[in-house]
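User: I'll paste a sequence; please echo it back and then give the predicted structure.

Assistant: Echoing your sequence first, then the prediction.
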Amino acid sequence: MKKKNRASSAICLTLLFVFLFAPILVLIVFSFNAGKSTVNMSGFSFRWYKSLFTDGAALQALRNSVILAVTSAVISTVMGTAAAYGISKMRRKYLKAAVMTVTDIPMMNPDIITGISLMLMFVFVGSLLRFTESLNFFTMLIAHITFSLPYVILSVLPKFNQMDKSMPEAALDLGCTPLQSLFRVELPEIMPGVVTGGLMAFTMSLDDFVISYFTSSSKFVTLPVEIYTYTRKQIPPMFYSMFTLMFFLILAVMIGMNVIQARDESRQKKRINV
């Protein structure tokens, strides 16, 4: 019976992985296709990778996406860490629960509702201030920070809760100021959560389309929005190579997040055993 259960579990797990990763595998394979077909392989070639690095519009869109993702990740990480620190210091349970509920709204709210509401707000504020263009890079930046903040807070806050409360108190007793205790004692302890939250904010921003579509302008277009213009016709094969490179970039980021979490968990276990 146990062998049958193991065999069925292995089959289900295999089918799950095939269902999830077969499309990505097909994409990677055809990014090296010498022809334009997505059905027949004409031969192995780096043709579309060369075409990618000579296409100005695609590279500009990719550059915009990276700039936006890095900027929003840095700002949301700083703001999210500060917010998590403040939430961890709250003593009133009802107030803390209310703040956490409000924090979860951007994450639980459908992207299309968030995107449209932010667009309407930016257009309204822009008309009040009489801007020539209500939507620009900064509106996209604010929008990306808005939906990235909850992920940073939820990554950092558990680290504050897991931290030994006597450590900052001991630092204060030894002569540290509250600010010195925060940067020299507490911040190194929560750093795995900070890094994980920052990487998650980066990947969420790099991947976002719906909110970016509603808050972008014609002068600053991200890669997902640029790719959307090709959906009514056949997507150029050079984008297959770009998707392949982005997949391996995100894969490297996810592996880094797992390594950081694994090291943090082993360190926590060693500390408990000691």
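The mean pLDDT is 82. Residues 140 and 215 are 5 Å apart (CA to CA).
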